[in-house]
Please model this.
Amino acid sequence: MADISHTVHVALGERAYDILIGPNLIDDAGAILAEKFPGRRFGIVTDTEVAKAQLPRLVASLEFSGPTYSTITLPAGESTKSWEHLQTVVEGLLAAKLERNDIVIAFGGGVIGDLAGFAASITRRGMDFVQIPTTLLAQVDSSVGGKTGINSPHGKNLVGAFHQPKLVLADLSALDTLPQRQFAAGYAEVVKYGLIDDPDFFEWLEANHAEIFAGGPARGEAIARCCAHKARVVIEDEKEIGVRALLNLGHTFGHALEKDTGYSDRLLHGEGVSIGMVLAHTFSNRLGLAPGQDSGRIAAHLRKSGLPTTLADIPGTLGSTETLMAAIAQDKKVSRGALTFILTRGIGQAFIEKNVEPAKVSAFLEEMRGA
Ligand code: GLY
Model:
């Protein structure tokens, strides 16, 4: 019997699915998948790091329970979310003779989840897929909600599709071997949920930080609360016509910084979000919307987690303010030239502002570069 500590249901009608959270779900995956998807074959998509650390567990579990599978292993890192590797996955699924009724397993972090999910959405005009996220970031954010895609040289996540998974299996034990830097980067997305509209959750995170990082029961609870929050938002606004955009808090600045640092190890996605969330709060303060002490409190909490919080924390030299502004303008949160930002009136009071003047953002970035 699988040991499931939390279940979150994403009630999307005929596209509804469960997020199962538990201590050893990779070892239970074979039995769960055989029961839920009898007679179907699986195409595992993973990366070299996850293949080393976790794949033997998944393979043993599938072999024990019977489903047949094949595996496609890609290089680890954000640059894998590319046209080139999309082709590798699609051709690999076809070469393995997986049929439309078979199932792609996205086994890894956010990069693998986004790429494999997008490949599933277009291969044979749409295959089902299951997310088995192995990073904190993927467990609390990217594996839930059906955003799939790749990066373009023009910017992050500019090519993709909404394609909901059929099931998400979040194995807490996978986080025990995650490098501390990766865990902290995922934690930025955890904090984000508190900052959007749940100040009690942010306070709870402040109180439970040590236990979450040490791997106590608060870790599973934090993940379940994030998934429940995300499920609520996705049910209300699956295709990001409205409120789902709030989940992009910190991402407009963050994506521009990621692009500027070449999607490299200089700045992980969650690290960009960490800096971006502090910038979003400070910018809101400069616009007279939010109290200044909130950005200080948020930055202190993120710094305690080992996260960068200022532009100066990014190693190496950043591009010019004009380059950053060009990246912000290319971000998909732009509508007819006006900049859309997630701004805030304070912790837990984020809102969507569709009419932000580019000159104000540019002046703010100039100020932050000198800070
Ligand atoms: N990561 C933001 C969203 O899924 O909408």
User: Anything to note?
Assistant: The chain has a mean pLDDT of 95. Residues 201 and 225 are 9 Å apart (CA to CA). Residues 180-369 form a domain with the Dehydroquinate synthase-like, alpha domain fold (CATH 1.20.1090.10). The radius of gyration is 20 Å.
